[in-house]
Predict the 3D structure of the following.
Amino acid sequence: MTKNQTFNVALVGATGAVGQQMLKTLVDKSFPIRSLKLLSSPRSAGKKIEFNGETLTVEEATPEQFEGVDIALFSAGGAVSKKLAPEAVKRGAVVIDNTSAYRQDEEVPLVVPEVNEDDLHKHQGIIANPNCSTIQMVVALEPIKKAYGLKKVIVSTYQAVSGAGLGAVDEMYEQTQQILNEEDISPELLPVSKDKKHYQIAFNALPQIDVFQDNGYTFEEMKMVNETKKILRDSSLAVSATCVRLPVETGHSESVYVETEKGGATAKDVQGVLAEGAGITLQDDPATQTYPLATEAKGLPDVFVGRVRQDLDAENGYHLWVVSDNLLKGAAYNSVQIAESLVKLGIIGL
Amino acid sequence: MTKNQTFNVALVGATGAVGQQMLKTLVDKSFPIRSLKLLSSPRSAGKKIEFNGETLTVEEATPEQFEGVDIALFSAGGAVSKKLAPEAVKRGAVVIDNTSAYRQDEEVPLVVPEVNEDDLHKHQGIIANPNCSTIQMVVALEPIKKAYGLKKVIVSTYQAVSGAGLGAVDEMYEQTQQILNEEDISPELLPVSKDKKHYQIAFNALPQIDVFQDNGYTFEEMKMVNETKKILRDSSLAVSATCVRLPVETGHSESVYVETEKGGATAKDVQGVLAEGAGITLQDDPATQTYPLATEAKGLPDVFVGRVRQDLDAENGYHLWVVSDNLLKGAAYNSVQIAESLVKLGIIGL
């Protein structure tokens, strides 16, 4: 990185769950900001937000707002990205988009810096940030892939409600209190706000995240499947997913089964490879009941991996428990990492 | 069943979470009871319990208490079963044991009536009731096995706290209220009361049920593996499990991946086979967001199956979401079903 370079940054969706973590991450990482513009829908325009000791006013996101912007972080839903990301690019900004709008676009790199930072060189204005549940899994898969190759992945997720937004977090806590009070509840948002039916999330496990596709999988499950193949650059990798929403505020957990190309590695070998993996903290000691937990991962940028075991039958099969803060590495932190990589690789800036 | 036969029944562990459901199930199923004796540790002796309009007093479980007993239901922990089940058998009772004490004993049938009722003929006094998480899975696997054969099973569980006893349920609710009140918490029971460390269960997912074994799997995971092979009478079946405790009161959910011997069945075929399966209610219609939920399974005896999908890569691979009340089909209901089967098959009685 050239010293003392600074950037004009715009953040679309500053008032959301991920937007708030983006602001925090920009400060925590001391990202070299020259100016910061907070943009939103007309509804949220006018709100005041604290940033690094200053009070900023949220403005309505319009095409003209992106004049002079170097980096535009989008996290305000797919429709907003579809409409405004091309406008930002037209005006010279590089867009880092945290929605699913462009993830499967062949011309758009889908990037987790620990895994496929190189793909950033191919960008044509828009870079997609993967889905939260995908990011933490591919961080854990990458070192195993490098060491042994990957054949098949089966994942069952244990996902937190903050992935569905701040409203879903409020719904969970309110509903929980109502149940403790033995009051009636009226679910309105979860599992999927725009879907027809809504179910109790408190003290329950909902096997639906996002809407169903024609093949019986949910959109969240297909995101994990398709994004994993794209990020790992292996369209022949077998991936299937079952995605489940839990009454956990923040921190996705995943039970991941992996079959490798090469056989013969012990669980200890795989632990060793994971411990050296970029962005990973290994927490794996049954003797001291050490394993990753959502409540402990919250607020931290790492991907935590534990419960590493060899499959009881397949000599090239392994089971992992993978936990990460879905708002940080799963969203905001990864987006800001992408911005840092763009600077480090000389893709933006002087 | 010979008409008007009645039985002297003893219940060891009547004050526990499962014991209470056993009493309820005996009434709900109108099990032909001549006399009912409630037994427990000295600590709980003297307690009064309502049963079918009568008030019964819990007595201390001693060998002599089993004189004249036809059927002894045990659900008071493995140590009690180890000590007293042989005493009951010596006095002529048939023991149906809901602990893990005898499950892997080659001379003890391990029975889920919908799957292997025939094994009851081999009993030598003790019959073991399988672990809750195993029972609901094998009920779902059995019709698939019959139709297509089974090669491999990978399960990730989403288990309710009532499986850890009434104390664990209290801990979950109290801790939840403390967190909502922003008070400090002090976990004392979960994930495993007798283990060294205890973690927050409220708004969390704990990847440990029962203590760790030398191979890195927990005892709960190995129960699922070994019991599934025994009940399905297939020691070469590949089974691996990851068991996770959730802040759900009652109702275990399971994400199950199955590879069949025969290929070529569609998800619709598998749904058809499951819909006809004994003890199963299929709840599977993505168009109406119909899938099994722990909160809806609570209090019902069925095993609910949904989210049936073909694996995206293996043409003989299928994913299922399996939910059941862990205290009923997972414990009390299955135990009373075993008693009914013993009568129906003429193994006990005249």
In short: Residues 132-148 of chain B form the longest helix (17 residues). Chain B has two domains: 7-130+331-344, 134-326.
